[in-house]
Design goal:
This protein is an alpha+beta fold and 281 residues long. The chain has helices at 27-31, 37-40, 46-52, 58-66, 159-166, 186-194, 231-238, 269-278, and strands at residues 44-45, 70-72, 75-76, 83-84, 91-93, 96-98, 106-111, 140-142, 149-156, 174-181, 196-198, 201-203, 207-213, 217-224, 243-251, 254-255, 264-266.
């Protein structure tokens, strides 16, 4: 979501209006110990923000701006010298969101089977905390996976981000790879795609694809928005193909890829920017 432009206060320029660099600093400003010239003018230069985000060098960022490839709060930047608030302004390059400087932790974890989706367990069973023992931050999980389900789960200490990502109203897609009993034929595949009625209501997957078939099993990719308990397992039970093994391989733009079981990594800037867009932060 593009934030509503804020009204400038007294003596302040509108956020989207480029401000050119001041001409000469006074001797007092220039010689004062501990004075950061960058702080003398509101905001941070856009090219500096882009460079800090790893988009390009400052000089290359200026070229991106000259080529009208950078937007701030939905407006194409047409001149050099714009200062921005990197924590609040929405910055894009070629349409891709550039996330603000990280004040929180965002981890991708590949949860193995047998690990419960909690940060602690009074019964002493393995938990997500066991997978990130070296992290000092107090993290919590976004959503859950069954103990017998493996794959992608996100850990963070950003409360509002976690709340929105888990909430069904934001409709963030999740993709699962299910190994099921028996051969899923064309008729069953069609039934799955059209929706299956469960005891707590119908489920309508966004996409169902058979990736391989064997003599007594099939591998099926399922993409859906909702997160009802055991919904993928119940869906396949309803069509006579019980799940043998289940893994979540994608949440929105974030893919599990080659991340080893039990391992973790930080969200990339591209992934985080896309997720912030998805949950309208």
């Amino acid at each position: 979501m593009t934030p509503t432009p804020r009204s400038p206060g007294p003596g302040r320029s509108p956020r989207n209006t480029p401000r050119r660099e001041e001409g000469e600093q006074s001797d007092r400003q220039r010689d004062a110990p501990g004075v950061d010239p960058e702080a003398e003018t509101e905001g941070v230069r856009l090219q500096k923000v882009l460079a800090a985000a790893g988009v390009a060098s400052r000089r290359a960022s200026e070229i991106l701006i000259d080529r009208r490839r950078v937007e701030v709060n939905g407006q194409v930047v047409t001149e050099q010298g714009l200062r921005v608030d990197p924590d609040r302004d929405v910055i894009r390059v070629d349409g891709a969101r550039i996330p603000p400087p990280r004040r929180h932790v965002y981890l991708v974890v590949n949860k193995p089977r047998g690990v419960i989706s909690t940060m602690s367990d009074p019964e002493g069973r393995p938990t997500l905390t066991d997978l990130i023992e070296k992290r000092k931050e107090r993290l919590f999980h976004v959503g859950r996976l069954d103990t017998d389900t493996e794959g992608l789960i996100i850990l963070t200490n950003h409360g509002e981000f976690a709340h929105r990502l888990a909430h069904p109203s934001y409709e963030v897609e999740k993709t699962y790879l299910a190994e099921v009993e028996g051969v899923v034929d064309a008729a069953t595949l069609k039934r799955l795609r059209h929706g299956v009625t469960l005891e707590d209501g119908p489920v309508h997957p966004d996409k169902v694809t058979v990736t391989s078939r064997g003599p007594a099993k099939s591998l099926v990719e399922v993409t859906l928005h909702e997160g009802r308990n055991h919904v993928v397992r119940r869906m396949f039970d309803a069509v006579g193909h019980p799940v043998r093994r289940l893994s979540r391989i994608r949440i929105g733009p974030v893919r599990l890829g080659q991340l080893a079981q039990g391992a973790s990594r930080e969200l990339t800037s591209v992934e985080l920017g896309a997720l912030l867009d998805a949950v309208k932060l």
